[in-house]
Structures are given as C-alpha cells and as structure tokens.
C-alpha cells in the first residue's frame, strides 16, 4: 500500500496534520511508538496537568476561598488517588478521541517506532520486533520533544524522588517539601498543583525573573502573587548539583552573579528546565536531513526539510513549544500537501500559564517593542476596578494592551487574572484581523464580565478608560 503521507508521531502536530490531510482526500498513515495516540500533550503534558490544576484549585478553594462568600466550615478531605484517577480518565477519553478521529477519517494508525529510510520510505519496528517499510509520497516528522536536563549538571531522574513533569503528574503522596528547578510555565503550573495540595514549594530559577520572555511587568506582578500564595521563589540562582539523599534529594545553587552556594533539601525535586527536540533513532543523519545548532529539524517556510518530500512540524522544529502552534502547523502543512495555500501567523500565537490567577499573552511584549525601536502606546486596566471581578473576589491582576503609536494597530496583549486564558482570544482574533485599539474599545462587551477589562485597557491605549 502506498500512502500520500506518512506522519511519524501522533501528538497535536502529527494527529491534526493527519486528520486534515485525510479530510482533504489524501491517503494517510500515522506511526506512533507509544501505546496510545496524542503525544506528549494528551498523555503526559497539557491534558493531565490541566486535570490536576483544576482539581487542586477546587480543593484549595474549598479549603481557603469560601469564607468571604459566606460559605463557612468547609474542611475538604484530599483523596489523592481519586484525583489521579480523574486525571487518568481525562487522558483516556482524550487519547481515545484521537483513535476515533483516525477511524472516522480512515487513517491507518500503526504502532511502532518509525525511522526515515530516505525520501518516500519509512521503516517501522513494532514493540514485538516486527518490521515493515511504508512507501509514501511525503513524510512528516512530528516526533515532538523530550525533557531537557540542566546544562552542565548530571541529574539522575528516577521519576519518584527526582522527577520530570512526567513523574510530577503521578506522585502518589503529597510531598512535604518540593523543589522545582526552573521557573517556567511547566514548573510553575506543577509547583502550584502540589502547593495547593499542601507541599511547601521552592522554585529555583536561573534568570532574574520567572516566566522569562513574558512581558516584564506581567512576570514581576505574577511573581509577587505566587509569593503571596506561599511559593518560595529564588531567582538569579544557578543550580550546580541535584543529588539523592537518604530521605529525598538536595539541590545546590549559587547566585548567578557570584557568591556563596546554598543547599536545600526536599522529599521531591522536579526538574523543569525546558524541553529538547526529540529526533533520537529517527535516522535523520543517514537520510541526510539537516538539524540546526539546537538539534531542531531545519525547515523552510513550507515546513520542508533540506530533503525534498520530507517535512517537519511541532516541537521538533523552531518556534514556541506549544500544542496549538504544532496543530496549526499540521493544518497548514496538510493544506500545502493537498495543493492549497497553508499558512501560520507566528506573530499571533497566544500562550497561557494555567495557574491561579492565569497568565496569558499574545504578540509583542513591551520589552520587545522597545528593543525594536517601535513607537507604542500602553493601555492598562486592573481587575480591582471591574465589577464582575469584585463580585467573584477575583480582583488580582490586570490587562495590558500595546498598540502602535502611529496606526493604533494592536501589537500585543497581556493579561494576569482569573480566566485570562479565555479572554486572551478576543485580542488574538483582533490581531489576526489587524485590528486597532479603537476597534477593540468600540466593540460592545457584555456587562458585567471580566472581559470588560480588556475593552477598558484598549480604551486606555486609544484614549482613556471610562472606569478609572
Ligand atoms: C507537563 C507539560 C504540560 C504542557 N502543557 C501545555 C499546555 O498547557 N499548552 C500547550 O500548548 N502546550 C503544553 N505543553 C507542550 C505540548 O505538550 C507540546 O508543545 C506538544 O505536545 C507538541 O506536539 P508535537 O506534536 O510536536 O509533539 P508531541 O506531543 O511530543 O508528540 C510526539 C509523538 O511522537 C512520538 N514519537 C517520537 N519519535 C517517534 C518515532 N521514531 N516513531 C514513532 N513515534 C515517535 C512520541 O511518542 C510522541 O507521541 C506541555 C508539555 C508538558 C510536558
């Protein structure tokens, strides 16, 4: 059987590319080495972490957040195994959903490890050691990413005491103390989960700020909010050692600027220092497929590698390691392979940190606009001045809109606050259509909603907010 397209990897990049290509009439196979489809995101990433974030947030709310609303006397009892079962059930329904989509779209799902044998040929070795070669017009590499270690430090991740995110979503006991190495999205999300369930959490971050790359004002305020919740955050700290002890593990770090080293101990250490593109065993060197200096598969503007007929998308190529970026690349590539015009607008990719409050951002940060010498206007509106936020006791945070000083076109939007991850999309759609702060400010928003703060921030960038 010859295919139009063989996709290696069934994460958000691979499975979405396969479904779209099949919808456009191509004959498609997907090779996946895991027992279930859905990749990192559905199995051990986005989906299980959000199940735990939601459940732990409900727990913490029931324990601490209801008195002021007149709901007293709640003393929730944690059943961690049941919470983990909820997470596992959520994963199962999502990965089963991908299997259903493959069936519906007549996509051949093939269990096994794929290897690129050259343009037009993919070798597959199943778990049982059976081998086959698939013939295809096009190959899509969508093999994603894997946990990166700490540069220059040997760390023995055993997924019970020293864990990656994979172990951190499956701990069967709430650690008394948890050290998180890395103050990025994954570290702060999973640190929040265990902090809400009772752990004393210490975050050790190399940079001067958590959430490096986010708008500076946003990350500063957010750091204060997490500290208020009880997270001990040490920034500007270089980790030089992570070792197991009799009772847990210890982490040694020193100020990046130089100075004395500190060692702290915990029962669990989470290594959340980022992810690396995953191309192990794919045979790319033998097939002549070029990687860049950071180990990512090099592609052109149409996702094609240096070898004709071999393409790559998702975490394994340049750009933010986000599921929706991988999905959009999958759709665009399927369209290109079907003879249509596929395109991804990399200037308008939202990103969300699913903590409480949430942090969401799209487009440029103020620091990026300054560095590029762009003349810009800023509109800001705090949730403390929003009626719905007051009613919900969700007044922490603000909306910030950045627009071009000359044209008023919105260049970036940043939100810290309850529901930020949903609200960011109105700014995203506006930016996709090249809208201005005035457009956003003149769009009628239902009252009372948190989203009115977005409108008010836009009013602030365009002229003046009303309610401040
Ligand atoms: C804890 C955590 C939380 C996250 N939360 C979010 C979030 O909330 N939002 C978000 O946007 N992103 C999140 N991410 C990132 C997101 O998971 C990735 O950006 C996304 O999964 C990338 O999709 P992908 O298709 O490129 O690769 P992956 O999802 O990594 O899928 C690659 C697949 O390829 C398979 N594979 C690899 N090599 C082979 C081979 N040789 N043969 C066969 N199969 C192979 C792998 O088994 C895997 O299933 C999170 C990540 C983690 C770890």
From TrEMBL:
Its cofactor is FAD. The keyword Oxidoreductase applies. It is an enzyme of class 1 (oxidoreductase). Keywords: Disulfide bond, FAD, Flavoprotein, NAD, Nucleotide-binding, Oxidoreductase, Redox-active center. Its EC number is 1.8.1.4. Disulfide bonds join 41-46. SUPFAM superfamilies: FAD/NAD(P)-binding domain, FAD/NAD-linked reductases, dimerisation (C-terminal) domain. It catalyses: N(6)-[(R)-dihydrolipoyl]-L-lysyl-[protein] + NAD(+) = N(6)-[(R)-lipoyl]-L-lysyl-[protein] + NADH + H(+). Residues 3-330 form the FAD/NAD(P)-binding domain. The keyword Translocase does not apply. Belongs to the class-I pyridine nucleotide-disulfide oxidoreductase family. PANTHER family: DIHYDROLIPOYL DEHYDROGENASE, MITOCHONDRIAL (PTHR22912:SF151), DISULFIDE OXIDOREDUCTASE (PTHR22912). This is Dihydrolipoyl dehydrogenase. It comes from Mycoplana azooxidifex.
């Amino acid at each position: 059987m010859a295919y139009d397209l063989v996709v290696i990897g069934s994460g958000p990049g691979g499975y979405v590319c396969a479904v779209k290509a099949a919808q456009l009439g191509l004959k498609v196979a997907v090779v996946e080495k895991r027992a279930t489809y859905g990749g990192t995101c559905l199995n051990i990433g986005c989906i299980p972490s959000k199940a735990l974030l939601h459940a732990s947030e409900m727990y913490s709310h029931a324990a601490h957040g209801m008195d002021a609303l007149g709901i007293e006397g709640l003393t929730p009892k944690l059943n961690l195994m049941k919470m983990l079962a909820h997470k596992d059930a959520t994963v199962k329904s999502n990965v089963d959903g991908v299997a259903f989509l493959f069936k519906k779209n007549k996509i051949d799902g093939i269990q096994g490890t794929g290897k690129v044998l050259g343009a037009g040929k993919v070798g597959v070795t199943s778990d049982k050691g059976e081998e086959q070669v698939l013939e295809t017009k096009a190959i899509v590499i969508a093999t994603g990413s894997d946990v990166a270690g700490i540069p220059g430090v040997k760390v023995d991740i055993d997924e019970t005491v020293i864990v990656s995110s994979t172990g951190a979503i499956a701990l069967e006991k709430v650690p008394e103390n948890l050290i998180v190495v890395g103050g990025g999205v994954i570290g702060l999300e999973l640190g929040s989960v265990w902090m809400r369930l009772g752990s004393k959490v210490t975050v050790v971050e190399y940079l001067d700020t958590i959430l490096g790359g986010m708008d500076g004002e946003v990350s500063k305020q957010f750091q204060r909010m997490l500290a208020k919740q009880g997270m001990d955050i040490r920034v500007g700290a270089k980790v030089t050692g992570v070792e197991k002890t009799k009772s847990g593990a210890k982490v040694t770090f020193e100020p990046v600027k130089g100075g004395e080293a500190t060692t702290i101990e915990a029962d669990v250490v989470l290594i959340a220092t980022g992810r690396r593109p995953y191309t192990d065993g794919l045979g790319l060197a033998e097939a002549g497929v070029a990687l860049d200096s950071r180990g990512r598969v090099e592609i052109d503007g149409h996702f094609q590698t240096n070898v004709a007929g071999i393409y790559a998308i998702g975490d394994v190529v340049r750009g933010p390691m986000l599921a929706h970026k991988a999905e959009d690349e999958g759709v665009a590539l399927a369209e290109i392979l079907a003879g249509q015009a596929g395109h991804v607008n990399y200037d308008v990719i939202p990103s969300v940190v699913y903590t409480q409050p949430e942090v969401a951002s799209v487009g440029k940060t103020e620091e990026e606009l300054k560095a590029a010498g762009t003349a810009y206007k800023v509109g800001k509106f705090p949730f403390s001045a929003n009626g719905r936020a007051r009613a919900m006791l969700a007044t922490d945070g603000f909306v910030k809109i950045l627009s071009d000083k000359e044209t008023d076109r919105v260049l970036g939007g940043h939100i810290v606050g309850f529901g930020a991850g949903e609200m960011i999309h109105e700014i995203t759609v506006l930016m996709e259509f090249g809208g201005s702060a005035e457009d956003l400010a003149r769009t009628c928003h239902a009252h009372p909603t948190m989203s009115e703060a977005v409108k008010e921030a836009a009013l602030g960038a365009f002229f003046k907010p009303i309610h401040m």
